[in-house]
Fold these 2 entries.
Entry 1:
Amino acid sequence: MTSNIQNIKLNIMNPAIAKEFSEIIGVVKGCRIIKSDSALTPDLYIFEINGNQEEFDLIQSRLVSGKDSEIFLTSEKTGSEMLMRAIRIGVKEFFSQPIKRSDVEQALKRFKERRAPANPATHQKFGTLISIVGSKGGVGTTTISVNLSVTLAQKEQDRTVAILDMNTLFGEISLFLEIYPKYHWGEITKNIERVDDIFLMNVLSKHSSGVHVLPSPGYLDGHQAPTPDIMERLLGVMKRMFDYVVIDCGQSTDEATLKTLQMSDEVLLISVLSLPSLTNTSKLLRSFIDLGYLRKERIKVVLNRYISKSEISVQDATKGIGHDFFWIIPNDYGTTMSAINSGKSLPEIAPKSKIVKSLKQMSETMFPGAKAEPKKKWGFFNR
């Protein structure tokens, strides 16, 4: 019978840090520390590093050779570059010092899960991809993406939600949620061959609402632009990790966006009651359908910022685009701008407003009574 005890060896110079790791590991069921001169082969090696290239080369060579099953790193030196170097060479976890007990415990839990024998009878549930694309700039694509994500996250406690910002230069999701992420999807495109759930969860930022955010670079820094293959790999991993993945596609219709739309379970095409927007909506609908990217029934046209006294009626707009509106979101400029300027979601600042009620009703209509299956509780590299 194979032992279910995981042997862990420490290579930590700082006695106080070594003691902390020892105490934490000592109370984690199924894990034990083995001495440096033990003949037992460690299942996990935890190294303390200073961050020089020789250390990374050594660790990479150990991983490539198969000498160590897994390696965790810890260092008093922090920084995004060190973290990304660790991820690129295959390190599963990185702990900044001073270490946090909860971070280590969660990392060991994930380690044990990876070491557990696979159960072939376990059903793999895939999440739902929701792409949101605008008929033109300024129609509220990001506003809807952000607030739909938060609404879905609040709907049920065990519902896991992520949002992906595909607006390369003008991505604003981080501003809308007032978060300051260290990483963006440019890090993914540079390391697409390494993308798995561990890698991705350590690049994502978590908002207080529970929504996990993968922002855009926000500037032109020479990163590799997403390709259809990159999007297929990235979204495939995200579908396995989250119940819902909301993608803010902006107004792009490049190949990567078209691949994203093809993979999506739901596509929301955002329009407003203006002639340019409705004209573009009609063109996009015809293009998506005629070129075979999407079936008509998979596209949900959402009318945003609706004003009842608009010069163009809903009936005329419906005839003009040749497609019914799936949902009509009322105009609430004051509340929306207040949320944007304060870096908060609409459900946070105005939970009883008409626009928030509309978004909640839309999510209920899209996913009526859907009870999300519990997903793994993910931790992060210490930020």
Entry 2:
Amino acid sequence: MKIEFHPIGIIHTPYEETAPFRPDPEADGDFSISIREEYRDALYRLDEFTHIIVLFYFDRSLKTNLFAHPPRLGGEKTGLFASRSPNRINKIGLDIVRINGIEDLLIRTSPMDILNNTPLLDIKPYIPDLDCHPSATKGHTP
């Protein structure tokens, strides 16, 4: 089976070589997403939402390892699927950000923990009653 993705835009952040493990809501710099012209119509009514789910391609991630050492566990070893490591098997990343404004093909957002010029794969609206699960757990934390 062959699966092929094509970027629909580019993510812009102030992070050129390393990004924080978690976005700082007070981070300095411009955070935005530029959408390719051919997808202009897909932005219709996006401004009615406060937040979006951003799916992107970790184009500069390191070699995949089936184990990770997440900071939230104090660096303790865990399986890749139980982590948010950027070193994914399929290199797909996800972030949820606030929309701060939409100007033509540019979506201004709250801070993201993504490297500058990262390829954007998709955007979905964040819908609280579908995407928030209050009974979910976050795993063991020390």
